[in-house]
Amino acid sequence: MAAPPPTTRASDWRATVRAFALEHFKNPAWGYSHCVRDYALARELAAADHLTLDDDVLFAAAYLHDMAAFKPWEDERLDHSDVAAGIVDTVLEGTGFPMAKIDAVRGAIRTHMYYRNPAGPEALYLHDADALDWLGAIGVARVMALVDPNGADPDGPTEVTMLEDNLKDVPARGALPGRPGPGCAAQGRVAGISRGSRARIGEFSNAVVLANAIVWRYLPRAAPSFR
Fold it and tell me: Quick one: DSSP state of residue 142?
């Protein structure tokens, strides 16, 4: 089991970062709760692999990795990982965070997505935790939350396709196969979570079909909400 986070005065910067994330990161798929899960799961996976991470680096990266998915930091021309890595110092500077570790935070943020290759233990475990959060019941719930209730993009069938793509693509890059040492715990979780994902994708797909049928049967003149 992961050791509890530091509780000394040096950890006060964490309260600032946590409050920042809670105030600004509001999205059902990649908002504040996703940051909390990524941090907790990365610590849990590392503990299962008997590896000690730099908790300052992991905490900062986990809570701020998606900041460029939100305005005013978003830049649609660039990958949100790269943007966030480039500006994360603007949040951390002056909070008490040990800025000598900023490059490690940048690296972990830059490679947190499943399609990138992490280097260094904090980057690796954030990467794997973030990948796992796209799978299983939580992954399905995150994607379902993106469905536009008025039938605009993304609609239900589109999100079913996204779930199927995640199940195909994420396990191949999250918990990088064949990696010696660190990552073993994540590899073990992928198999079980993937099986659960298949069942839940089927349930969601059936729900979309049922919703379409209800709309067309009882509201023939209304715009179909789940199409």
Answer: H
| 150 shares a domain with 117 | no
Structural domain for 178, as ranges: 134-227
Residue 7 pLDDT class (50, 70, 90 cuts):
very low
* pLDDT tens-digit readout, 152-180: 777 777 777 777 777 777 776 655 444 44
Q: Which two tokens stand for residue 106?
A: 């940048």
CA distances from 177 to 50, 109, 130, 173, 194 (A): 18, 21, 16, 8, 15
* Pair 12, 99 in one domain: yes
Say whether the peptide bond before residue 177 is cis (omega within 30 degrees of 0): no
- State the Cα–Cα distance between residues 190 and 28, nearest whole angstrom: 22
Residue 105 to residue 84: CA distance in whole angstroms? 10
Number of domains in the chain: 2
CA distances from 21 to 25, 38, 63, 171, 218 (A): 5, 13, 6, 27, 43
